[in-house]
Amino acid sequence: MNRTFVALVVSAVLFPLGGAGSAYAIDLSKVTFNGYIDIEYAQSSNKAGDPNGAFHQHHLSFLMDAPVNDRVSGHFHIEFDHGVNTAAANGGDIIVEKSFIQYFYDDHFQFRFGKVLTPFGYYNEVHDATPVFLSVGIPRTIYRQNERGGTAMFPKWTTGINVLGVMESGSTIVDYIFYVGNGENIPTVNEAEHDSNRNKAFGGRVAIQRGELTSVAVSFYSGEKAESGSRLTTSHTTWGLMFATGVGDLAALAEYASSDVGGMVDVGAYGQLSYPVNRQLTAYYRYERTEPDNGTARDAWNEQIIGINIMPVENLIFKAEVADHVRDANNRGIGTDPSSLAPNPKDYMDIRFAVTLFF
Amino acid sequence: MKRMLGWVIVMAALGFARPAFAEMVVIVNKDNPVATISRAEIEMIYLGKKKQFQDGFTAVPVDISADNSIRREFFANILGKAEESYRLYWLRMIFSGKGQPPLMLGGEEEAVRFVSQNKGGIAFIDSGLIAPGVKAVSISGMK
Predict the structure, then answer these.
(1) Which residue does chain B place closest to A358, by CA atoms?
(2) Distance of CA B84 to CAs A304, A314, B60, B76, B88, Å?
(3) Dmax of chain A from CA atoms?
(4) Taking the domains of chain A in order of start, what are their residue ranges?
(5) Chain A residue whose CA is closest to B83
(6) What is the CATH number of the domain that holds B63?
């Protein structure tokens, strides 16, 4: 029965795409298929993290671009997260990272309809795309503020409508995207599919690139955050600033973001330097600082990361890094040791390794 | 013996001098009305930021897999990027759902054939390989 069902599903998918005589078939030669898989190992120096260490099959992702014609295309990205086993507790996730239809009017105006990774800052649109960034993970500050004792600065995904485009003037390129989408809900509700708020969230990003090396971007997000039910909402506004430049082979990237949830202000910032030692090996250093609540003194979380990114052959990347965490006593992310109920150590170190294969 | 060696050197210089004298040109389909294109426009087309020519033709940029002096010149003088940073740029575009890199063909002859058969085609080749069906465009705004 199951085999029959699977065969029917596969047939239903394949025949419209490639079946001879189908009026609606897409030219398969124009459909592109990409993906990546990564395996990580992380271990902490004490109970503030994971002192035992563990391997993680973090991402298994498949992406497809399907152009219907010169103006309309579909873009899909499905991720199997943390070695999915839906029968187990904390058994990972299967996530539609993005799924949207894009309409190209001209270079200045394009429209997207569907679910996207919220266009905020430098990293959110490549949130899990490990082949793209040098370090094992993207900065926790700004992008995972809730894992640094703060609250999420913006929803990771948004479902709605985007308008985007590119303008040029001489050697200056302006890249913009604005969106209206579902706002944030209580934590158990899929933000991409529901909105507990009457008003939809909106935001955008404007990036200016001058010359080949220097770019500046401003991002903003505004919405209502449902705190504990559909009637309790708080205004949530976040803005961010990104600056990237290079001197010779040395690249610098820095971001700052400030988030206001009903008067509580979260701030995050990082600066990163990277240098390609040769064609295969790039060394990097990043300093991250999170100040989760302007109403709480001494609650900062600082992290310094030093690492190397090696690509010995095309489509394969090794990463190794050491991270040093220094936290103030009042940071809400410190937590307690369940066995003794004593506070966890404030400071700790992580070692992380990753191997990523992509195509 | 010395005279023969001299001739050998001269003949070798004439026969294998293509990389030294090769001139990189950007070609489009002969039916494309574009006669002049700016360096910045070509860069934007190859970076996926510009998808149309001024006349509305959908631009289909072509890259070549051969690592030759023509390709190196195109990257250095038109794109202004090292190949490594160009590759990383496109990885970021692919995995953020923003598009696919230019079509990769095996060589310049193949690129000429493709552009001659596609109205929106654009490629970079050695000027000596221009053939019927394509035309070279002049490039403004060169550094």
Answers:
(1) B91
(2) 27, 11, 22, 12, 6
(3) 70
(4) 1-30, 34-358
(5) A279
(6) 3.40.190.10
Decide: A157 and A118 in contact? Cβ < 8 Å. Answer: yes
Residue B9 in any domain: the answer is no
Nearest to A166 among B50, B84, B96 (CB): B50
pTM of the entire predicted model: 0.87
B8 pLDDT more than 80:
no
- Minimal CA separation from B98 to chain A, in Å: 9
The residue behind tokens 């069902």 is A5
* B97 close contact with A: CB closer than 8 A: yes
Partner residue opposite A132 with nearest CB, options B80, B84, B91: B91
Phi and psi at B126, nearest 5°, equal: -70, 135
- For A1-34, write each residue's pLDDT tens digit: 444 444 444 444 444 444 444 667 777 888 999 9
The range of the structural domain enclosing residue B89 comes to: 22-140
The answer to whether residue B7 is domain-embedded is: no
Domain-located, residue B17: no
Task: Flag whether residue B83 sits within 8 Å of chain A, measured between CB atoms.
Answer: no
pLDDT band at A95 (very low <50, low <70, confident <90, very high): very high
Amino acid (1-letter code) at residue B100: Q
Residue type at A287 in one-letter notation: Y
| ipTM for the whole complex | 0.86
Tell if the CB–CB gap between B94 and A63 is shorter than 8 Å. Answer: yes
A212-247 tens-digit pLDDT: 678 999 999 999 988 765 556 889 999 999 999 988
Using the Cβ of B93 and the Cβ atoms of chain A, whether some distance falls under 8 Å is answered with no
Share of chain A above pLDDT 70, in %: 91
- Contact flag B100-A77 (C-beta cutoff 8 Å): no
Distance between alpha carbon A259 and the CA centroid of its chain, in Å?
17
Q: What is the dihedral of CA A81, A83, A89, A90, to 10 degrees?
A: -40
Interchain contact B88–A (C-beta under 8 A):
yes
Answer whether B81 touches A (CB < 8 Å).
yes
- Distance from the A1 Cα atom to the nearest Cα atom in chain B, whole angstroms: 37
* B60 in any annotated domain: yes
Instruction: Choose among A267, A275, A304, A307: nearest CA to A287.
Output: A304
Query: What CA dihedral angle connects B74, B79, B84 and B90, to 10 degrees?
Result: -120
CA atoms within 13 A on the CB side of B117: 7
CATH superfamily, with its number, for domain A34-358: Porin (2.40.160.10)
Q: How many domains would you assign to chain B?
A: 1
Does B96 contact A34 at a Cβ distance shorter than 8 Å? no
Chain B from 102 to 141: CB within 8 A of any A CB: none
Closest-approach residue (CA) in chain B for A279 = B84
> Which pLDDT score, from 0 to 100, does residue A299 have?
95
